[in-house]
Amino acid sequence: MNNQWNKFIYKVGAPVYDRFFNSGVFLNARKKVFGDLVLRDGQHVLIVGVGTGADLCFFTEQDIHITAIDISPSMISQAKDKVNDDMHVDFYEMNAQQLQFPEQTFDLVVANLILSVVPDAHQCMNEIIRVTKDRGSILVFDKFTPRDKKLSLGKKIVRPLISLLGTDIGRHFENIIEPYEKQVNILDDRPVLFNGMYRKISMQKLS
Q1: pLDDT of 151-166, one tens digit each?
Q2: Range of the domain at 16
Q3: How many domains does the chain have?
Q4: CATH number, residue 28
Q5: DSSP secondary structure letters along the chain
Q6: What is the Cα Rg of the chain in Å?
Q7: Intervals of the chain under pLDDT 70
Q8: Which single residue of 25, 39, 53, 85 has CA 20 to 30 Å from 33?
Q9: ∠ CA 102-109-144 to the nearest 5 degrees?
Q10: Distance CA 123, CA 55 (A)
Q11: How far apart, in Å, are the Cα atoms of 158 and each of 14, 144, 153, 164?
């Protein structure tokens, strides 16, 4: 996977993305992910890889400022249609591996379905932590290989083919977060979809 290829895939897939990832079981999973989220008025939230804006509906009741980035202008165009007049959202076309924000900018960083699609998940995680304020929150919803388990033979065979669709089914969150274990505290790590293939992971950045 690389960013240019991903931009092409997202441009092609943007018109039908909502049908698969923003409805049905995925919508129910997102409700679980955001179900216990508590925000205070005035907080600044970053959505990394906003896609077509599936997560925006969970922020309509709070008086907060949202910054939403994505590498795909086609995805951003659709996400803008999901913003109502009461929401404060700024959109930027941006690489999730090179966030153009100062350190400790955001109270909450939402990174849903992004660590499995960026070329370098370690660099993306590093950037997410960097721009999160001390004691701020990081929320992840994504697919990972279950902890302490190896990728099955079948998945090993199809992994290169699925990567052509812009996603990696063989990443371990434990490997991604390992270099940053002293920077964050994992508060919650639970399965939410497809027998634990998709997990909700919430973290707090340590000061």
Answers
A1: 776 666 666 666 666 6
A2: 3-205
A3: 1
A4: 3.40.50.150
A5: --HHHHHHHHHHHHHHHHHHHSSHHHHHHHHHHHTT----TT-EEEEET-TTTTTGGGGSSS--EEEEEES-HHHHHHHHTT--TT-EEEEEE--TTS--S-TT-EEEEEEES-TTTSS-HHHHHHHHHHHEEEEEEEEEEEE-PPTT-PPPHHHHHHHHHHHTTT--S---HHHHHGGGTTTEEEEEEEEEETTTTEEEEEEEE--
A6: 16
A7: 1-3, 5-14, 153-166
A8: 85
A9: 125
A10: 23
A11: 23, 15, 9, 10
Q: Token digits for 93? A: 């076309």
Amino acid symbol at 129: I
The pair of three-digit structure tokens given for residue 30, joined into one six-digit string: 């997102």
Residue 74, both tokens: 């086609």
Structure tokens at 82: 């999901």
